[in-house]
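Quick review question:
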């Protein structure tokens, strides 16, 4: 069961990357093209992690995800900064990004080894991305034109996925040690692995649907 879920998880990332490639020209017009190399990178990373954990005698993926999170934050910061928010809101986005970068540097310089897994950096990244998504949802629900709503529908799906995904992942990470200690499982799958993979399948499926909507005519 665990292997099937992992395959489905990897397949969801791969499928979203393929859909992004198919509609790459449409993604360029909407400022979403960066998600094509990003999703390709994520797929190769997760595939590499799978084989690394399977064959390594002393597996540790801390450094991998400690680099993955800032990359993710930069990618989505780039995407959301292109949205026509009010000038004051764009300044807030930049300030939040700078705070995140400062926090990350200070964390790995003084409090945590970059080679070790920690919840703090991931939690802050999740809060930042969730904030981005909420900003967009307020922008989207403030639209009063059906054509504009249709135009922003792909970004709505992406933001909805982000707003659902990261809070759930943050909660899961917060209880990671407890779930690990109590060996909580569902169908023999550790709960601390099951939740992120299921939520990832949901998020990447939303991404694929959003990319498909990019090619539809207004």
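Suggested answer, residue by residue:
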């Amino acid at each position: 069961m665990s292997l099937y879920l992992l395959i489905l998880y990897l397949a969801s990332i791969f499928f979203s990357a393929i859909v992004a490639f198919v509609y790459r020209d449409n993604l360029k017009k909407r400022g979403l093209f960066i998600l094509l190399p990003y999703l390709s990178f994520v797929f190769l990373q997760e595939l590499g992690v799978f084989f690394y954990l399977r064959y390594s005698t002393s597996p540790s993926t801390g450094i991998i995800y400690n680099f993955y999170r800032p990359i993710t934050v930069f990618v989505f910061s780039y995407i959301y900064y292109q949205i026509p928010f009010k000038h004051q809101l764009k300044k807030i986005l930049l300030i939040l990004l700078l705070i995140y970068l400062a926090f990350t540097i200070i964390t790995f310089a003084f409090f945590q080894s970059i080679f070790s897994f920690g919840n703090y950096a991931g939690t802050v990244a999740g809060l930042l991305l969730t904030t981005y998504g909420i900003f967009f949802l307020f922008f989207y629900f403030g639209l009063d034109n059906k054509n504009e709503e249709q135009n922003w529908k792909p970004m709505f799906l992406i933001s909805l996925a982000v707003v659902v995904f990261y809070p759930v992942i943050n909660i899961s990470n917060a209880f990671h040690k407890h779930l690990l200690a109590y060996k909580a499982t569902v169908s023999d799958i550790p709960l601390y692995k099951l939740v992120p993979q299921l939520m990832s399948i949901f998020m990447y499926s939303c991404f694929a649907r959003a990319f498909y909507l990019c090619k539809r005519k207004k």
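Why it works: The two ends are 42 Å apart (CA to CA). The mean pLDDT is 86.
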